[in-house]
Amino acid sequence: MAMKVIIAGAGLGGLCLAQGLKKAGIDFTVYEKDAAFNSRTQGYRIRIDYSGQESLSTCLPADLYAAFENTAAVPAPVYTLDTRMQALDNKWVDQWIKDEREIPADLKADRHTLRRVLISGIEQQVIFDRDLTGYSVQPDQTIQCFFADGETVTADLLVIANGAASALTASCFPGTGLHDTGNVCIYGKVQWDEQRRQLLQQGTSVIFGENIAGIIDVMEFNRISDAAVTPPEDYLYWALIGQRSSFGLQQDQSLRLSVPALQQAIGQATEAFPAALSPLFSGAAVTASAIVPVRHSVQGRRADNAPVTVMGDAIHTMSPAAGLGANTALRDAAALTAHLKKTIDSGLSLMETLRNYEDQMLTYSAAAIAASKKGSALLYNSGE
Ligand SMILES: Cc1cc2nc3c(=O)[nH]c(=O)nc-3n(C[C@H](O)[C@H](O)[C@H](O)COP(=O)(O)OP(=O)(O)OC[C@H]3O[C@@H](n4cnc5c(N)ncnc54)[C@H](O)[C@@H]3O)c2cc1C
After folding, report:
1. What CATH homologous superfamily does 4-380 map to?
2. 32 CB within 6 A, ligand 1
3. What is the reported pLDDT for 175?
4. How far apart are CA 360 and CA 368, in angstroms?
5. pLDDT tens column, 3-12
6. Whole-prediction pTM value?
7. Is 135 in the pocket of ligand 1 (CB under 6 A)?
8. CA of 313 relative to ligand 1 center, distance in Å
């Protein structure tokens, strides 16, 4: 049975699925709303755990999986510290790996580089500047997709992979929504140089403040001269996550902050941290700094028999506290690929396949959301 799949969204989840479908010999096109691949910096680090690595290895050809491994940061230990940088031994999020040099270790990928790996070899099937706004089921059970520019395309299956706050998900999985926890995360990066080496240990430092946590990750890369995808310059990634009050923000305040207001929020959040660390968080050297609300998906259920399904943050947005969001999106990609392959090989109906995938995905993603809530409570007394 030949099948044509449309994927809405070229994020980590959508691109990993595209690679999986390519490997399985299933026809696909990805439509992405961003004008181009480099439209947004997406410059922070992303921790890929063992499950994420397995999913990538299932979906990617061997050379691209090797490119992912080769462009990940050098593994190093994780340290939990108080605001005076003294070791803490009673704070630990279950999903963290104590020492990345142990197996199975997390691999720290640069998000932009990982996306470059994921789009390699499928560039012609990823169409940018296409905002997929809706769909309708045709009498022959194919799906017609509509774009903001008035264009339409038809396929056998639409996969919604367009990230958090997806209006598309709400139409096929009614009841899906986002719970805003009232907590926020600010992240950014600075160059990792000799001067900064004096300040921090190589590895991950998690600093526990009052109702706030700072995560600082050294991203040092191996350089392989003939690599197909090259990593960026070494950098230091940081994220501050916690209750709004710790950033001096009101509960209902808009997060569209001016640069000075963002700097002020960072200053307040890091007030108790050693003064020597301040230049890491604010100042001209800091790039790609952004503020995002911490939200969790409330997951709805499929409404009808439309040949549409959903994956990634579009159905399971979660706090970054446990580092599970992207890993779960990659797991969706591997799971959906395997189910679709089974349909083609066994002749199982597409609807049965989608229901099997969704039962599995909704179970493990609900567990990941719960683990993220637990991680948030430990990191910054989230009270979610
Ligand atoms: C600071 C921070 C740190 C994080 N760290 C980690 C970590 O270490 N490990 C981890 O596992 N997770 C982490 N996460 C979570 C992770 O980033 C997300 O879970 C992951 O990006 C979700 O992937 P996705 O493909 O579902 O969605 P996205 O990556 O959001 O991609 C969705 C894509 O769809 C596109 N799109 C939107 N609307 C449309 C439309 N109508 N038509 C076409 N395209 C559309 C968007 O432009 C986007 O490119 C972190 C998140 C944050 C904020």
Report:
1. FAD/NAD(P)-binding domain (3.50.50.60)
2. yes
3. 93
4. 13
5. 999 999 999 9
6. 0.95
7. no
8. 6
